[in-house]
Structures are given as structure tokens and as C-alpha cells.
Amino acid sequence: MLSLLPYHVIALIGMLALTGFAGSVLIVYSLLTDEPRPTRPTGPHPSPTTSPVFTLTSVQPTQPVDLPPDDPSHTGPVVYDVTGAYAFPIAADPGLYTWTHYHWDGSNAVDIEARFGLDYPAFVRATTAPLVAITSGSVENYSGSIGGQGYMLHGDDGLDYYYAHMAEQFVPDGAHVVAGQPLGIIGNSGNSAQFIEPHLHLAIGPCDSLWDHQPAVNGAEHLATLFNLGWQQRSPADVPYAMPEGWPAHHPALTVVTPYDQAAEAGLAQPAIELGFTGSPPDNPLDVIAPLDGEINVIRWTVHYGTRIQITNRAADITVVISGVENWLAQDGDVVHRGQAIGRWNPANRPHLHYMIFQNGVIIDPTPSLDQRTRPAGDVSGQ
User: Fold this and answer.
1) Domain check: are 34 and 159 in the same one?
2) Which one of 38, 62, 152, 303 has the lowest number of neighbouring Cβ atoms within 10 Å?
């Protein structure tokens, strides 16, 4: 779903290593995601073949067609191209989603995620929609710890379509499907994706090429060709070098209630510090304050940590992650500056604000950044 270049995401600390992007720091999305390139499974598998010449002309999508209502879990609008041979891979209005021209790692894959501006009910509908076969072909189950539940759809058109991070799978291994047939449910399965918004990671390439190579077909251009659907343009901002400094919220009684060492010893999946109150929390929500100059990535309504706001300064190879936010005042790709209000936190609803810092792709103790100059008055934590 989607980084500062394309889309949002967080690697499971202690399990996944982060990769560099074009020799530089990963942008904010890459810290929260580790999108997969599948590896060839063991056992018999078709030999690689040469992909046929594949040419399409741009067409307007047809009106959505409802899936058969006999199984409510599979119902939803399916958008076909004018030939009926191709279906948008999510059974929902494509206008609910967004994707960028290139994946966060510079590859041709796309992460199709719920667009900004949706209210919570619309967001839930968009992130629990059925996934359908983009075209006819045979389905090969491919699931793993990184990509979660997924399929490799060997299209009758000579291309492979890799679906990752599914929440449910409907189709048995080896089944032949037709365009628009339900495959499962969009999700966020996999080690890293469990901490981010449900989305479809879609990679496209010639038959059998995706096991060993990056996708040769640009997914965004492919969707544009088939359904006349464009992509979100996003260019990386040139933010000067800066380091985190200060607290991500200000209140005289705010303190560190869970130190970093204690969180790490407790075996938390993402050890960090937790900020909160030892007494009664304030009655009113507090501003969430940017402790770093950088680019924003918002990860909405996650199960584990609520809404998360990331700020990445790529010049310093550093990212801060603030979780437990109730409302956000910035969105993906915005540039913010230290001291700027970027969200709201209501301690009465979520008693702890979870705060992490990644430096050079590794999580570090953020406590030293809470220096005396910016510590809330009356607080003595960290001394």
C-alpha cells in the first residue's frame, strides 16, 4: 500500500533485514514493509517459457458487474475491460484505491491500497474486499512468511500475476479460473505486512519469470492500459539532513511509562518506548508533534498499534514512528518540520503513545532524543 515514493510499511524487528533503495536509505514505506519476490517452490514446476508478444490497446472500463449473490463473502462489483477478458483484481470500485507508477523499491510491482480521504467504514470496506482473477489461467498457491498468503496466477495470456498478503484464499492449488472469479480476500498477512494497512501487492511478468527476477511488466502501466486507470504521482522531497529531537507530544505530566530496555526484554514485536501518564490522563486530546524534518507516511487504523505516523529524513537515514494516533493532520508524501502538529492523540482512548526510531534500517532507543531542552516541564524520566 504505500511509502513516501510509492506507498506505505514495518519490518518485523529482529526477523527481517531492510534493503537499500538505489544505494540510499529506504524511504518511509520500506521501513514498514518488506514486499516479497517469490522463490521457486520445491517439487515439479513448469519449465520457463518465452513470453509471447503481448500488445494491448487502451480501453475504457465497463460498468461494474456484481458477483453472484449466492455466497455473500464473495460479492462485490467487478470491473472488466471492454473485451471481458480482464478484470480489475479487487472486486470494488477502483476509485477507492491508489497506487504509484513504481513500487517503493523501484521495481515494476504495485501496491494497491485504500486511498486517502475515506472515512473509517469506507476504509474497512476497501480493505476487506474480495480479490479476483485479473484474467483466466491456472492458480498456483504460493504462501510464505514474508508475502503471507498468496497465489501465482499463470495467465492464459502468457503472463504470471503474483498476489501477496491475502487474508483468505478461496481457490485450490492448480485450479483453472476465469477473469473476475474470486480468489480470496485482500489482507496484510506476512511478517511485515501485519503491522500495516491491508493491500494487494501485485507483480506481473512473463510466465515463470517472477520466481527469480523482478517483474518485467510495469503493473501501473498495465492497469492503465487495461482499464484506463492512472496512478498516483509522487516524487521524493529533498529534505536537508536532520536528526530527531524532542517529544512527540507535550504535557507537564507526560512521562516514559515503558523504557526501551523493558520493552525489549518483554519480547514486544517492535520494542520501543511508550509515553503516557502515571496518574489520570488529561481530559482533552493532545497534539502529536513532529520530532524530525522529513516526509510523512500515515498507516491508518492498524490492529496492533492504531494509526501510525512515520517521518523519514533520507539524508540522515533515519525514520521516527509514532503509533496510537487518533487523527492525522498530514498525509502520505507531505513534508513536515520539527515542532509541527501532525496529528492528535487521546490518552483516554489509547493510554500509551508508542515511539520508535530507525537509524540505518535498525531500531534504536529513542530516549536520548528526548533531551532536556524539549522535555515537558516537570518530567524527570530518562535521567
Assistant:
1) yes
2) 303
Looking only at Cα atoms, what is the longest distance across the chain? 70
Looking at 180, 207, 227, the residue that finishes a domain is 227
Please check whether residue 160 is in contact with residue 209, taking contact to mean a CB–CB distance below 8 angstroms. yes
Report phi then psi at 30, rounded to 5: -65, -25
pTM over 0.85: no
79 and 124 co-located in one domain: yes
- Asked whether the predicted pLDDT for residue 266 surpasses 50, the reply is yes
Half-sphere exposure of 29 (CA within 13 A, CB side): 26
Do 188 and 100 belong together in one domain? yes
68 and 134 belong to one structural domain: yes
- Count: domains in the chain: 2
Distance, in Å, from the CA atom of 245 to the CA atom of 368, rounded to the nearest integer, reads 9
What local confidence, expressed as pLDDT, does residue 25 receive?
29
Which residue's C-alpha cell is 492458480? 139
- In angstroms, the CA 111 to CA 311 distance is 20
The answer to whether position 267 is within a domain reads yes
- Are residues 115 and 34 part of one domain? yes
pLDDT, tens only, 23-79? 232 333 334 444 555 555 443 332 222 222 222 222 333 334 444 433 434 457 899
Q: Is 320 domain-assigned? A: yes
Task: Specify the long-range contacts of residues 367-370, CB closer than 8 Å, at least 24 apart.
Answer: 367/256, 367/259, 367/260, 367/273, 369/243, 369/244, 369/245, 369/246, 369/291, 370/246, 370/247, 370/256
208-229 confidence digits (pLDDT tens):
999 889 999 999 999 999 999 9
Over residues 348-374, the pLDDT tens digits come to: 999 999 999 999 988 999 999 997 544
Sign of the torsion angle spanned by Cα atoms 68, 73, 79, 81 = negative
Cβ–Cβ < 8 Å for 218, 101: yes
CATH number of the domain at 161, please.
Answer: 2.70.70.10
189 found inside a domain: yes
Main-chain dihedrals φ then ψ at residue 25, nearest 5 degrees: -65, 145
Claim to verify: residue 75 and residue 159 sit in the same structural domain? yes
- Which one, of 332, 307, 317, 301, lies nearest residue 3 by Cα? 332
- Cell 490492529 maps to which residue? 303
Domain residues for the domain of 35 are 28-227
